[in-house]
Amino acid sequence: MLMRTDPFRELDRVTQQLFRGDGSPAPTAMPMDAWREGETFFVEFDLPGLASEDIDLDVERNVVTVTAERPAKEGSVEMLAAERRRGTFSRQLVLGDNLDTAHIEASYDAGVLTLRIPVAEQAKPRKIEIAGGRSDDRKAIDA
After folding, report:
1. Spatial distance between the Cα atoms of 43 and 35, rounded to a whole number of angstroms
2. For the chain, the helix, strand and coil percentages under 3-state DSSP, each to the nearest 5
3. Which end of the chain is more exposed for a tag (fewer CB within 10 A), N or C?
């Protein structure tokens, strides 16, 4: 599942979202939903107006990083309204050890990036068989 253990990472992410290196406002964050269905964890990111080639997905250990870029308008364009931010923006998720990051599947459709992350085998509930009967030591004690 998602873990929020490093407040400084979250502060750094928010600062990057609010300001670029030159102090100007940065592109807005990509909204996200996350949920679990059975043995699969889903994450969806809203990235409207981007091609799949504009999105980069990286996994390092248990950190998933989604980076996207909406390029600036080229040429001598006079913008009449500019509510959709341009530039590069990213989002990081810290996943728990109970998810299998080696088998993440990603798809992009209608402006939504969907990640399917299976629950790791060691994190799935399982039955443990209990050995029954009397052991030879117990039989010797009873005799």
Report:
1. 7
2. 20, 35, 45
3. C
CA–CA separation, 17 and 129 (whole Å): 51
Residue 65, phi-psi category: left (phi > 0), alpha (psi -120 to 50), beta (remainder): beta
Q: Going residue by residue through the chain (143 aa), what tens digit of pLDDT does each one get? A: 565 566 666 677 666 656 655 555 544 568 899 999 989 999 999 999 899 999 999 999 889 999 999 888 888 888 887 777 778 888 999 998 889 999 999 999 999 999 999 988 776 777 888 988 766 656 656 66
Closest CA to 2 of 68, 98, 91: 98
Whether the Cβ atoms of residue 46 and residue 31 lie closer than 8 Å to each other = yes
Beta bridge partners of 36: 41
DSSP 19: B
Determine the Cα–Cα distance for residues 56 and 122; give it in Å rounded to an integer.
29
Alpha-carbon separation of residue 130 from 115, 127, 133, 134 (angstroms): 38, 9, 10, 12
